[in-house]
Amino acid sequence: VSQQLKEEIGRGFAGLEDPLAGLLDMLESSSDWKGKGHSLGYYISTELQLWIKEHPAVQQSGIKLKKLQARVLQILAQCPANLLDPLISIYQLHTADRNYLLEHVSHLYHKGHYKEAAMLSIKLKLQPDQDVEKMCTPLLLQDKTNLVEDYVGEYPELQSKLLQILDSWCEPGFNISNITRQYQGLSRYKPDKFNRKMLNKLVFRLLDRFNIDPALCPNVINQRHLRTLNYLFYKRFVEKTMTQENWTDHVQSTVGENRWLQGHLIQLLISYCDLNTAARWAQRYNLPKEMLPYGVAEELQKLQIQERVEEAVKADSYEESKKKDYYQLPIPRADIHFLQTWEETLQCWEKVLQPGQVVGIDMEWKPSFGMVGKPRVSLLQIALKDEVFLLDLPRLLEQAETEGEKEKLPHFIQMLYSDAAITKLGYGMSGDLNSLAATWSALKDTDKQARGVVDLLKVDKQVDVLSPEQSYEDREFRQPEKGLSLLVQHVLGKPLDKTEQLSNWEKRPLREEQILYAASDAYCLLEIYEKLCKDPASFGLSSDLTESLVGKPSIKPRAKKQLNKQEVPSPSGQQCQGSDKDSPRPPAPISPKEFSVVCDNMLQGLGRYLRCLGVDVRMLENEDDHRKAAEIARQEGRVILTSGLPYQTLQSQVAEGRCFSVNCSEKAKEQALQVLKHFNVQVSLADIFSRCQ
Q1: Domain 592-679: which CATH class?
Q2: Which biological process terms from the Gene Ontology are attached to this UniProt entry (predicted)?
């Protein structure tokens, strides 16, 4: 407010016999505060609030004050939110009769002014004397969840009560229209926003925000567990990407002692497996016969426990075949150290905290499957050239609690991350650091202090974080490791074996497969970095690799595309040699029948799209080496379509202009348009679906 206006307002108040009544006269006859933003009424009110402090004699009391309070309550029902605080303060509404205030709010509520009633209740702290369900239901129907959160914000008892109400609405069989029916004709009602999904999300947000025990909401938690169960069956029996052990671990920890979930598990086993398997699980949980479908109960009677020898044999041969297909750790098993005591970690720190040291760092945690809270890190892996240290964080945390050495381990981790003389390699490091901070509050600023960090996610622009066929539950942990596995394949020749990725990392002892997986995840970073540093050009990177990559771990998976464009020289979307700059004239137009291509792996979507348009397409399988594309291109006279790092290698193996790099961050349709435009392929109506799909 300008000084001149302030002085004018001050003089105005001084000239009034009763400034408090004067302000109300002004506001009652004013209409300018009905709009948005700060009105003149707002400025005058805030100035009066300050002016009263200097002139306390103008304060009223007794009957006079009560009359003013009755008038101001009428104004509060329709004035902008920014006027509430100054008016409540000026007219001392906190001292007004509580029943009188409650009655006024109730009157507003019954006139259908639910938002205004709630806001006034919050400002006057009336919530403990109100019915939380009654006050919050119409707000939820109007999609005002933020106001509901504020309403219970300072009252733990009301938070619990609200959560129990919301959970009761999520009970199987409960009809939500029972609630909506009571509020027919509600203004600004948003029925599409008021449903089970919204309620589920809200419950989890409130549990997390107010740090409340999830056991208070059994319906919502059970349904989330049931979705997890469905997801686990999908991973194991449809996608076939989860091992039997991992699957069993997760199923047991999801179902627990809950009879309702155990019943659903039996139904899922009947659908996906057979009666015998369902009966074995029924036996494991000691389920009463009356809970079981007839076939399962019958199978249970016949069931004799027998060791499945053939399964063990199958597993052995499977392990051998795996070695040929996946990246193998190049150091002996004896050089992987699992550290569970403070003394054991000292040898690790002595070796790691050396100037000039290069270390690969990774972390594992139990998949959250969408449950409340951030995941807590269960294992911290630190790889050096000759050995890998696996730190059992839950165990070390527990020990620190009992021995009063809480600061020591976080201190060493902070020293490691903040020392610019030690190069730390990671993949999607900011996600790891966030989880580390959630595990140990002392580490919450590690990401801000980090120096000498190389995040290899910045190099890898090859693969989107989520592949399209993944289920919705998977969004919770975003799986940047899929990208790492592909980066390992591009740079080192074989992908990582990710079957242990969704293990239960909290369970002890860890299985041998988990230990080898965890060590490989950290160690492969050293090998990738070494190879990229030796020959950055062949991977489309500038020679000052360390300069362009060492820095703060600022990448977050969701910001990946945008940051990569700025910070990493991109081979993606490059034209082939002899492109626009060298040949300003476009090539002669050709039809799709005359255009033959070979699509590198991970571009199957583009391949299928081009085939629909009549192009002669061959596609590499995901497990094929990229060099196979060059062989096919030479033998059959095809153009190679690739993207990212392999472009550099492949374009040197074929004639000029016969290798094209598409932008892999775009959808298949956009990629296809890019290819057709570059090679001047003219598609006619007759070409579409002219080839067998």
Answers
A1: alpha beta
A2: nucleobase-containing compound metabolic process
